[in-house]
Amino acid sequence: MWWKNEIFGGKNVTKIENWPWQTLLLIQLNSGRVIVCGGTIISPRHILTAAHCAENIDIANSFVILGTVDLDSDDYVIRTIKSVKVHPEDPSENSLVTNDIAVIEMLKKISFNDKMQPICLPLSDSMLIKGEGTVLGWGNYNEGKNLSESISTVLKETSVPFIDHKLCNNAWKNLIDPDFELADSQICAGGNARGTARVIHSNFAHSTLELRPKKYIIQQILTGFIGR
């Protein structure tokens, strides 16, 4: 059993216009360590991300990269960070990693265009337990039977089915602890085989749900997934 920053079965995204709310966060921690996380545009100035990415951030040396799928490209927008708000219930203090959510405020607003758009937010607390969503990110990826040594420089996407809450909870009990209880606010998604749609813990990925007509809402921020 292991924890990974991986996306299995993902394919390269060719145009950021397909997912214009996706951003990359280049974060330097107060310790000097640099990490890379995913973020989602929710307003002209705000980015939604995971709390475990935004805690202990050195704001002066951290940046938001927008409007690109290719990190090697010069065609992107970069913004400095003004402030960070992390959920008041520290996710690092509980084994479930609940409330793993933060909002980053950029120093300067962005202008919406085909490459930068906000995602829709849920209108209620209702949880989806059927259907499937799309996971996006720049995480490590599978190269044949091996895992890449570095993160992908190109944004990747993959589809994952949502898993029944009770079924997922029982699976976690078997893998981790018989007393384990999945929080009601958490969603399970994934598959059973490499190269299909199994996604394991990724700092770089968010999941979206497609609605009809062509509209997407953010459904979850990936926090902790286990594979074996």
UniProtKB/TrEMBL annotation:
GO BP: any one term: proteolysis
Lineage top rank: taxon: Eukaryota
Record keyword Disulfide bond present: yes
Domain Peptidase S1: 7-228
CDD domains documented for this protein: Tryp_SPc
Gene3D superfamilies: Trypsin-like serine proteases
InterPro entries: Peptidase_S1_PA, Peptidase_S1_PA_chymotrypsin, Peptidase_S1A, Trypsin_dom, TRYPSIN_HIS
MF terms in GO: serine-type endopeptidase activity
UniProt entry keywords in alphabetical sequence: Disulfide bond
Protein name: Peptidase S1 domain-containing protein
